[in-house]
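User: Quick sanity check before I run a bigger batch. Here is a single chain. Can you write out its predicted 3D structure?
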Amino acid sequence: MLLDDVWERVHLTKIGVPLPCQENGSKVVFTTRFLEICNEMQAQKIKVDCLAANEAWKLFQEKVGEETLNCHPDIPNLAKKVAEKCGGLPLALITIGRAMASKKSPQAWEYSVEVLKKSAHKLARMGQEVYPLLKFSYDSLHSDTIRSCLLYCCLYPEDVLMLKSELIEYWFCEGLLDEFDCVSRARLQGYSIIDSLLNACLLEEDGEYYVKMHDVIRDMALWIACESEAGENSFFVQAGLQLIKTPDVGKWENVRRISLTGNKIKDLTETPTCSNLQTLLLNYNELEVISDGFFKFMSNLRVLNLAGNRSLRELPEGISELVSLECLNLSRTGIRVLSIKLKSLAKLKYLDLRYTDVLRRIPRKLISSFSKLQIFRMFRSGSGGYYANEMDEAIFFNSDNEDVILELGSLLHLNGGINGFHNPYETDGDNLLNDGNEGLIEELGCLQHLNMLSIHIRSALGLERFLSFQNLEGCTQELSLCVFKETKQLNILSIANMDSLERLDVSECGYLEQMKMEMKFGEGRMLQTSLFSTLREVTIFECGNLRDMTWVILVPNLRFLWVVNCSKIEEIMSEEKMSEVADADVVKNLKSNPFSKLQNLGLQFLPELKSIYWDVLLFTCLTGIFVRECPKLRELPVNSDSAKGNQICIQGEKEWWETLEWKDKATQNAFLPFFEPQ
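Assistant: Done. Predicted structure follows.
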């Protein structure tokens, strides 16, 4: 029996169909758009993917017809562009292909390409034939909240991966997650909504941390938000179109959400009137100037995203008039100073200052005035540019994290980091960034509702003060330790109980010789159960006296490890240092197979590095190894079974690869196909 397009569980016995089994030899095959229907009916699942590019092109050709395709030599290439916009979805390929069969001039095809970029619903009866069928999946979602969260995804540019955690945080600030007042609990509702959208095939998962939207599903969402239900939702989306000029602000008047993400707009000098506006996404443009009057008539704005505008050096004074603002993202901007006038943003729940390399000044009593702040991010901030702007976007091996895999080795021309650029120890008493960030830590410690924290600490004293605040220690997800003056030893176990810590950076600690594993009396039992349980990313950069990183054996869920420009490191893990650990019980379970969850390993500019590990390891999750300027590294800790079933990319110099020594010929043959010379 074949059942097509099933929308709810079918009770087979109630309609007189015996349950399939070996004895009766019967089978029931059904198709559905909902994964939960498969689970409810205990079915064996076979995912039907969209058509591959060559199959999609073949179907499109059939519907357009040879006569049209042969009318003009330019039409086949233009037709391929139109077919690509259908994303392999047969319904769209058939509908558009049939409609284009009568278009026999290249100009008509060029017009169709442009329409598909901006307003796909206006082309070839998409709004009459394709989207209404797809909208049934949207209408069948369990609640208005889930439907609103789906529509929010179309604010992102086409083909962009959406970080799940970021989506959820924006949903929270927009008031879409109504079950919890606390963002850490609201995340549970957010992930449940993402699961619902994945189960309905309206979103697709891409790795562990990202989701994406099929082009046609996004176009349908835009059709709903801008046309079908425009009165209710009212979106204005011109994302990823490489616009140079600001779209006509006269069209913004009644709009609730605007996305101009991913364009090339340099200035915003008009004064738009949009009192209904709640969301304004201006991230990843080329903004240099925003006039003081630009925000004047946006009194209900809740979310403002200015991230990625590197040339934006200062905020307009008018931003202080956004009294309803709950989310402000200034990450990766060129902002140098935060004004004390920002205290008027009393409703702020989310402030992101990550990678604001040239941020020099935050006035005292500003951060502590944000009494409702729940998310504060200041990771690798005010660092004077030792992470070069252009490298923020350099990602290797298609990492599951948008920031962690940076080609830090390319930054070595910036030796000296913050030296001569901004002295964090200078004496401006009103500046939170002038005391190793200790003043900032004090103000953060006063915030009662803080749930998620990313922090950049510049002194051992600052770290000690930070660890004295249990509320900060418990909610920190990203920790950057930078320029610890005259600190020769760091007891890494002092941060082992930070049960939310996901990323750790240690950078430019030139005096640091040892990262010790030294337990305080009575901590052993506690450490064994909670040791670095959430930490998954570690970067060590420019620690010139450090000789090993044996402590990473304590990190059971490590996914990404990058060690860059540490001139004295000889071993990543030292067998001798392992024997010196005060309590061997702490590591006995990890020693058998460290790196079991490692996905990416980066080793750059390590002239003394000879060993990664003293024995063979099984890299069950490894996808990439990047080696650069490590001339003494002659052997990898692998054998022929180390990466069975994995597709690994190994990048490095050809000369280095040719001098590697292998356990045996089988090991060499197993890894030979993975190498990509650099």
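Residues 111 and 657 are 51 Å apart (CA to CA).

User: Great, the batch can go ahead then.
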